[in-house]
Amino acid sequence: MKFLPFWFVFLLFCFGYGYAHLEREQGHFRIADSSGLSFIAFRVTAYDSVSVTSFENADTHVDNEFVGRLRYLGKLGSDFTFNGLIQVANDKTNRDIPPHFYDPYDGFPYNRQSGSNRTWDIFRLSMKYDLPFVSLMAGIDYLQVGVAKRNHVILRGDESRFRPWQDSSFRLQIPAPTPYFGYEFKVGPLSYSQYAAKLYHEKDLGKYMHTHRLEFDLPFDIQFGLSEVILYGSTTEPAGSNLNHDGDSTGREFEWSYVIPFIPYAFEEHFHGDKDNNALAFDLSVKTLRNWEFYGELLWDDMKSPTDMFDDSWWGNKWASSVGVLTKQRLGNFFLTWNLEYTRIEPWVYSHHKGSGYNYTSYGEGLGSDLGPNASEIYSSLLLEWKILAFKLHASSVAKDSAFGSSFFDIHMPDSPIDKEFLNDLTTKKYLELGVELSVFPTSFLWARMAAMLYRKDYEGYRLEASAGLSW
Fold it and tell me: At residue 469, what are phi and psi to the nearest 5 degrees?
């Protein structure tokens, strides 16, 4: 492995990447009426980042990013709240940046300024209006469902991280926010929420997602969630290319019946001709022991029955799960957090035999775990916090297959094998990631972060990240 000169590493750690720590404080500039019921607050953030990535048999890549961000939140009267963000970024790199033609399947859009420079922007807004019996919600934002800490297999929201296979400038490896509207009912320990969202894969072709969730707050600090997700859209593949009998080119529009509450999607799907992609999900969080949480998520995707979950003789027995444990302890003036999580995603999960208009993606990125189908990860982290310092160690063991059925966009055809194999030895890449991270917050408006990751096995190399930013 090649090593960078000491002076370069030192400079690297003086600038950098600190996305995860930008929201420690809410709005700084605040405007309110005399009653105090209505206000709007603003917070401005600017940070600079640099990362160095080096793998064997590949060039060493240096990426620099400068970001400006405006965060605004507020309340109008006693019932209407909103929370928004506008971000503009400028990326410079020593690698080639290809043009972006704004096709969603090529990832989140950016503007190519030169062969080594691009700019891009992103915005988010969520609004909520509370009525006596229901809360109404709308915006363009990320939807997250589940209790996992590392890998959400149901809906990951804005969860994003670096994977070795993402060492490319071909696309922005980030999830995209989605326009949505929804509502929530609460009755004692029971809550019901439902969302309808617009997804994107190809220009001018509709793609949609609906999700609803029942959440139970049980005794002994136990929370249980039951969710359904359904996806559908216009077929994006050329006519005749999909050999499945129901996979030829068709146009789909928004199905309003999925917006009606309290009806399981499994029944509504039959009402529409049994042609959509429906998934059932469960999650459980147990906090009975003080300072401990045991949790799990399970996504069932097109299985014949629960008893077929571990039957590999049919490719359609698709499921994904994340299970873990988290503890937070106070040791004198120190706060210690430890997390252990295991994720397993079977082949063909998140894909669909009717193609990209029905799979579990938007802007080319998975809505569930970014690992994609046919993958696993064991992850552990230890976080130590003391006053203005946060020190973190983590280790991760990842396996990702590349065989047919391991991509969001693979389409199972009538002549494809009907069985499946989890992580075939001949086509699976495995890597071990060891990381260390130090974050410093000398004031409420100034922060810095530095991190180093070492990779072993099928990916041999390292990645260095560093950042400094100012929020006001």
Answer: -150, 165
Model pTM above 0.85: yes
From CA 280, how far away is CA 297, in angstroms rounded?
11
452 in a structural domain:
no
What domain count does the chain have? 2
CA 182, CA 176: separation in Å to the nearest integer? 18
Q: Which domain holds residue 45?
A: 1-50+63-129
Q: For residue 156, is it left (φ>0), alpha (ψ between -120 and 50) or beta?
A: alpha
Q: Where a domain ends, among 129, 145, 179? A: 129
Report angle CA 104, 106, 110 to the nearest 5 degrees.
85
- Does 445 map to a domain? no
Do 369 and 220 have their domain in common?
Answer: yes
Q: Are residues 297 and 417 in the same domain?
A: yes
What are the mean pLDDT values of the chain's consecutive 10-residue runs (472 residues total)?
42 39 56 87 95 94 96 94 97 94 94 96 97 96 97 96 89 94 97 98 95 97 98 94 90 95 93 91 98 97 74 92 97 95 98 96 96 98 96 98 97 95 97 98 91 97 96 88
Q: How far apart are the first and last CA of the chain?
A: 41
